[in-house]
Amino acid sequence: MPNEMEELEFYLKKAKQVVYEVKKTVVGKDEAICKLLMAILAKGHILIEDIPGVGKTTMALAFSKALGLECNRLQFTPDIMPSDLTGFNLYNRQTGQFEYKPGAVLCNILLADEINRTSPKTQSALLEVMEERRVTVDSQSIELPKPFMVMATQNPFGSIGTQKLPESQLDRFMIQISLGYPTVEDEIAILKNKTNGSPKIISEKVLTAEELMAMQAYVEQIYVDDRVYDYVARIAKATRNSPEILQGISPRGSIAVLAIAKAEAFLRGHTYVLPSDIQYVLMDAAAHRIIVDNGLRNGNVTAETALKNVLETVSVPKLDVKRVV
What we know:
Layout: H1 4-25, H2 30-41, E1 45-49, H3 56-66, E2 71-75, H4 82-86, E3 87-92, E4 97-102, E5 109-113, H5 120-132, E6 134-137, E7 140-143, E8 149-154, H6 167-170, E9 173-177, H7 184-192, H8 209-220, H9 226-241, E10 245-247, H10 251-267, H11 275-286, E11 291-292, H12 303-313, H13 321-324
Parallel strand pairs: 1-8, 1-9, 2-5, 5-8
Antiparallel strand pairs: 3-4, 6-7, 10-11
Domain ChlI/MoxR AAA lid: 238-299
Pfam families: AAA_3 (PF07726), AAA_lid_2 (PF17863)
Protein name: MoxR family ATPase
């Protein structure tokens, strides 16, 4: 049986291979690739908010190929129905029975494109999928394949045909990130890597679904000291008491921060979580969960600045790493 360090090195090597393969397709977004991998290892759903055309869909397809997972893509428009997601029962005249026709969610990675353009009814169906990882059709529950995650994209609010996602749905996403525009050098590389105007997915499979679930189980067991638990709880409490924040981090948000911090620690080659890991993931894991008071400072308070101010008020625990490990 491998010892703890050998197991860490084995899984870390696999993770680096995934990053390398995704980077072959997605140019100039190294930090975003690592953050998405962290969320995947932490079994979380991902929301990418950005303008059209910056590589959100390409990123999701590259990950699905490198991880050896089945990916279904669904373009969310106002006429998309819940049954397009969940599937439906169809009567078969030959057998006299109703047969289940799978929807788009019967896969490992559901790429939900432009999620904030569809109807509330469809959003509600997606909410059950994200929370329960199963679908209900005519009172029949159907478990989704494992692993399963939603990688959703949304256009910035204010774009034509968009609407704000409800807070309850935003809270189900482990992280929300933005890719942004590429640099001139990166855009040149993107222009060279295209087929009929679309980037080529040149990433290769380096993991199986079973290997990914084994890595997720390993990350879940990353050690967390009691002082780090206390640190996360005090940060959450501070967001709820901050005069700049109307709605603070929920307990689900605290769980998400800790879960992705374990994945961040793992990618750094650690078998334990440090307060610096919590600080690094906090913005991506919590900014979309809070509501700031836009009446303050002429509306110049953002979720990011409010969280930074909160971090300054919460004392950081000092850990003796030798004793932790």
